[in-house]
Design brief:
Layout: H1 3-12, H2 24-36, H3 41-54, H4 58-71, E1 84-88, H5 101-110, E2 115-119, H6 131-137, H7 147-157, E3 159-163, H8 164-167, H9 169-172, H10 175-181, H11 187-193, E4 201-206, H12 210-222, E5 228-231, E6 246-252, E7 256-262, H13 279-290, H14 296-311, H15 318-330, H16 333-345
Parallel strand pairs: 1-2, 1-4, 2-3, 4-5
Antiparallel strand pairs: 5-6, 6-7
Helix pairs in contact: 1-3, 2-4, 3-10, 4-12, 5-14, 5-16, 6-13, 14-15
Length: about 350
């Protein structure tokens, strides 16, 4: 048993009247002890469920990220003049809707932005379809690459994927606790705002509940991150809906934060949000979209790709951004990018 960690559990788990938040330095120390597993399993489980019930503060999340970065591999900065775009989505996957973000990543890469996704295999508590499975069906098994190999592919193609067991084994080792407590702990929020990259970047992070967005915004401020967007996407992902209003929070270095609401129907891209299918079926839908087939999935691709380009500053307005994505698809540039990434990854395996 760790007496020091017990103090952290007591502090956050003492209830509404006597419980207290951790300072940033205390949260950093607690996270370090979690990653080193210096506490007992009972203490770790108690801390995670108590922290979920209490709800984490921005200072706590900032401190936990401070510690996480000390245990994880960070890709070196690129020579590319454009900032790298990090797409942060829930690691425990999708249960209702097909993911769009792999194609969004390809579109951003075509536009000259390095892009990094991150995630893992099927994880508790949802055990939903992970992005990794879709990439594998597209012929890009990112989980077979070491961090150095991912860095090389990113440098050559503007696209990369950080597989958590390789980039932070200590964090990955905490996954059994999620299954045992049966709830997403605050660690799941960290996954939305973590970046395994050391250079200039733009963070695009998904969320579901407004309180989560609020604490993410405050965490970004504490950590000096001034170029980001929060997207109320499908199942907490960065995939914005086409069947209803898309809600975005955008923060630019010069102008600060603003709320943005958009609707795909105002741009001729409305339809039903793509329902979840198998990874193979989604890969086939992606290939059909890259071949020019019009469907709800292709509309969602154009909508999300255009918003991503606009948020990252590629285009001055959304209309121009939509036309740009449609031109990328028509010219086969997105399909060519997928082929390039597949060819770079294949020899490694």
């Amino acid at each position: 048993m760790s007496a020091q960690f017990r103090e952290f559990v007591q502090k956050i788990g003492s209830g509404q009247h006597t419980g207290k938040d951790l300072s940033r330095s205390e949260a950093q120390q607690a996270m370090r002890m979690l990653l080193e597993q210096n506490a007992t399993p009972a203490q770790i489980g108690a801390f995670l469920i108590a922290h979920r019930i209490k709800r984490p503060t921005a200072e706590e999340l900032a401190g936990m990220l401070d510690a996480w970065e000390q245990f994880s591999y960070s890709l070196p900065g690129l020579s590319c003049p454009a900032p790298l775009v990090v797409l942060g989505s829930p690691y425990d996957g999708r249960e209702r809707h097909s993911p769009i973000s792999p194609v969004t990543a390809l579109i951003l890469a075509v536009a000259g932005f390095p892009v990094l996704q991150h995630g893992s295999d099927r994880l508790p508590t949802k055990y939903g379809l992970p992005l990794l499975d879709v990439w594998c069906e597209l012929g890009v098994p990112w989980q077979k690459l070491s961090p150095d190999q991912v860095s090389a592919v990113l440098q050559a193609s503007n696209l990369g994927f950080a597989y958590m067991p390789h980039f932070c084994p200590a964090f990955h080792a905490l996954l059994p606790y999620r299954e045992e407590i049966g709830k997403r702990p605050p660690l799941a929020t960290l996954e939305l705002i973590w970046s395994p990259y050391g250079g200039k970047q733009i963070l695009l992070s998904g969320f579901v509940h407004p309180p989560t967005e609020a604490v993410m915004i405050d965490t970004f401020a504490l950590r000096g991150i001034d170029h980001y967007a929060t997207l109320r996407g499908l199942e907490g992902s960065v995939d914005l809906p086409i069947a209803r209003i898309s809600v975005i929070g955008r923060h630019l270095p010069d102008t600060g934060w603003q709320r943005i609401t958009l609707h795909a129907r105002n741009y001729g891209l409305d339809g039903d949000d793509p329902k979840l299918a198998t990874a193979d079926a989604i890969a086939q839908e992606i290939k059909h979209t890259l071949d020019g087939k019009i469907s709800n999935y292709s509309k969602a691709v154009v909508w999300n790709g255009a918003i991503a380009l606009w948020l990252c500053g590629k285009c001055p307005d959304l209309e121009t951004s939509i036309a740009t994505v449609q031109e990328y698809l028509r010219l086969g540039l997105v399909a060519d990018k997928l082929t390039q990434v597949r060819q770079l990854v294949r020899p490694i395996n």
